[in-house]
């Protein structure tokens, strides 16, 4: 059965479809299918392709995966509200303040966070994000209203807000920019294929899949320099500056997840693993000295695959939660 973590992650998505007045824009697949995330309807796709700006009101708890202009005018106090933004892996989120009417002195706030936070856990983790946690928040009430545009460092961002007085609110415009070298990513779907490239950058990159999955790595290049591979270490990944690790757990923060496997040798071929955790993360650690690349595909683990464990699987910590 799905865990509380999965219900928390998908709640905003299901909430959207259940709300009134949005059914012509939003569709949800059955819970038994692989992709319970919201999909844009054909009507909305046609409107966006025609150059029209998508506009609608925000809810206290909301999730957005498309560009547009979004507003909220409080009809009653809105005290613990958050909007989650998500794009494709190669997209960055741009949030523009168009209009803000809140009472900062009266306890209202409007904050943008570079990433996601769920029950105190962050994505990307503090180890993987280029900024310290304190700098990942942009507080409208403390920024002297000078920073009107905020850009995320990855394909997810969020807004926290509190509004006490009915009639107050704000309007934001959300756009997306292309990220040539996507690093930290939360997948919108339960299946897909992705190539992560870190070109001579000293950074760590995590790809998060909020499902139990079968993940197949088909190509891994580590320590690639001038067309040659560096000599492989004698054993394990100890002391190696460039490697890939697979993590599993029940929360959002990769730094708090269980290390399941390390890959520190380049190879071409196929390495498949079944990971029964609520959240699976492929994380690449790069020293910045080389061009590192990993290609992988994944799909949601089904019941038959959980029963057949003859292949190269990861069973510790994970399968009992399915």
UniProtKB/TrEMBL annotation:
A GO-annotated cellular component: extracellular space
Statement: the UniProt record of this protein carries the keyword Disulfide bond: yes
Residues covered by the Corticotropin-releasing factor binding protein C-terminal domain: 185-306
Record-level Gene Ontology MF annotations: corticotropin-releasing hormone binding
Residues annotated as domain Corticotropin-releasing factor binding protein N-terminal: 52-177
Signal peptide range: 1-21
Disulfide links within the chain: 60-81, 104-141, 183-205, 237-264, 277-318
Keywords: Disulfide bond, Glycoprotein, Secreted, Signal
Compartments reported by the entry: Secreted
InterPro entries in the record: CRF-bd (IPR008435), CRF-BP_C (IPR056178), CRF-BP_N (IPR056177), Sperma_CUB_dom_sf (IPR035914)
Main location, first listed in the record: secreted
Superkingdom of the organism of origin: Eukaryota
GO biological process assignments: hormone-mediated signaling pathway; negative regulation of corticotropin secretion
Function: Binds CRF and inactivates it. May prevent inappropriate pituitary-adrenal stimulation in pregnancy.
Family: Belongs to the CRF-binding protein family.
Protein name: Corticotropin-releasing factor-binding protein
Organism of this sequence: Dryobates pubescens (Downy woodpecker)
């Amino acid at each position: 059965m799905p865990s509380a973590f999965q219900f928390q992650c998908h709640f905003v998505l299901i909430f959207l479809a259940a709300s009134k007045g949005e059914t012509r824009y939003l569709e949800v697949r059955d819970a038994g299918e692989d992709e319970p995330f919201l999909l844009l309807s054909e009507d909305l796709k046609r409107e966006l392709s025609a150059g029209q700006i998508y506009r609608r009101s925000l809810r206290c708890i909301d999730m957005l995966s498309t560009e547009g202009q979004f507003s909220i005018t409080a009809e009653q106090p809105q005290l613990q509200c958050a909007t989650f933004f998500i794009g494709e892996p190669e997209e960055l989120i741009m949030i523009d303040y168009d209009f803000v009417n809140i009472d900062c002195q009266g306890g209202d706030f409007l904050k943008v966070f570079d990433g996601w936070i769920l029950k105190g856990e962050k994505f990307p983790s503090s180890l993987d994000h280029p900024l310290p946690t304190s700098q990942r928040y942009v507080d409208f009430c403390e920024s002297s209203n000078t920073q009107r545009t905020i850009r995320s460092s990855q394909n997810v961002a969020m807004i926290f807000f509190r509004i006490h007085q009915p009639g107050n609110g704000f309007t934001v415009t959300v756009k997306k920019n292309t990220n040539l070298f996507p690093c930290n990513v939360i997948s919108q779907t339960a299946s897909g294929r992705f190539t992560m490239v870190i070109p001579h950058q000293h950074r760590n990159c995590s790809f998060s899949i909020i499902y139990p999955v079968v993940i197949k790595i088909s190509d891994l290049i580590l320590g690639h320099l001038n067309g040659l591979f560096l000599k492989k270490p004698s054993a394990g990944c100890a002391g190696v500056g460039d490697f890939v690790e697979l993590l599993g757990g029940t929360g959002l923060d990769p730094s708090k997840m269980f290390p399941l496997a390390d890959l520190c040798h380049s190879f071409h071929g196929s390495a498949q693993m079944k990971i029964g955790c609520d959240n699976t993360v492929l994380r690449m650690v790069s020293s910045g000295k080389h061009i590192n690349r990993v290609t992988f595909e994944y799909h949601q683990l089904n019941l038959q695959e959980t029963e057949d464990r003859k292949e190269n699987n990861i069973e510790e910590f994970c399968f009992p939660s399915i």
